[in-house]
Amino acid sequence: MPGLSEHFRQRIAAEGPLTVARYMDDALGHPRLGYYMGQGRGQDPFGRGGDFITAPEISQMFGELIGLWSAIQWQVMGEVDPFHLVELGPGRGTLMSDVLRAGRGVEGFLESLSLSLVEISPALKGVQEETLLARTGDELRRAQALRWISDFSEVPEGPFAAIGNEFLDALPIHQYQMTDDGWRERLVDVSENGFQFTLSDAATQDGAVPPDLAASPGDIIETRPAAKALVQGMAARLNRHPGCVLFIDYGHERTACGETLQAVKDHAYHEPLSQPGTADLTAHVDFGALSEEAADAGAVVYGPVTQGRFLAGLSIQARAEALAGASPAHAQEIAEALTRLTSDEGMGHLFKVVALTSPGLPVPPGFE
Known about the structure:
Blueprint: H1 4-15, E1 18-19, H2 20-29, H3 55-58, H4 60-76, E2 83-88, H5 94-103, H6 109-112, E3 113-118, H7 122-142, E4 145-149, E5 160-165, E6 174-179, E7 182-191, E8 194-199, E9 220-223, H8 225-240, E10 243-252, E11 262-265, E12 268-270, E13 280-282, E14 285-286, H9 287-296, E15 300-306, H10 307-313, H11 316-326, H12 331-342, E16 351-357
Parallel strand pairs: 2-3, 2-5, 3-4, 5-10, 10-14
Antiparallel strand pairs: 1-7, 6-7, 6-9, 7-8, 10-16, 11-12, 11-13, 15-16
Helix pairs in contact: 4-5, 5-7, 8-9, 11-12
């Protein structure tokens, strides 16, 4: 069976150089060969034995606090039933299992839930199901439904809360480079030495790049139309039903030039155009653009705030002390996890948090 590199070579020979978005889309989500679709390391890329570790894998505190955040939002909406709880890109299912475990302390919350997991990978769906049944089988049985869907638009209508932790960064980006003749799109081509970046022959169409952006020749700007479409769809739903969305990801607060496309394999840097399909591909989230798009579409936007500030607002320090008191043998491990999640040297500053809510709902916890 031809590999993904050969797939790209054939496609470029037939159609010409690929946009970076097309390259990312296939490298991650090609039905047979994509990184997340069960080919090679894509079977389980998370954790110490995979390619990278996300916040839920670092400590149960992260998911538990998100669970309480979701339960509070349910209460604010009048303890509606059913309440659609959605996770975008659930990974191993660790975050959702911690959310459900924390939710059992809020009377009536679990019984109101209709769960939707947005996942395109058959391999990861199996991992998620195993995790949820093993860790939160009792809580899961109290929920009304559990479904896997491929797109947020498939979530049933009604009040909802959606969580996306390290989801946006994997959505495809377009890259544009400033030249002496204006902006041109950056493309992926192939040569005898492998894949390489090149520039489009034609100038970029108006509207593809933010207007009035200060740039010099050689500067690169990244845009993410897939994220824009997702946020617009979510905002439309927030105007139809009470709801909230929580995005947690690494990125920058304001739109600016800079190349952030990166690949990670075995917890180390990997050349993005080398051995496609064997490494995770991501790019920093432009929270400034995301917030503007959500607000323009009618959502109420809170943040971005740093992950450290957000978790502090949810009293992660008190939760860490409670866990350490209940398990003194693990106190050092808990303290290290707290530092990694909240400190500027860890994930506390690079990772940002944005909440979108329906008009009329109060300020959500962590954004006061």
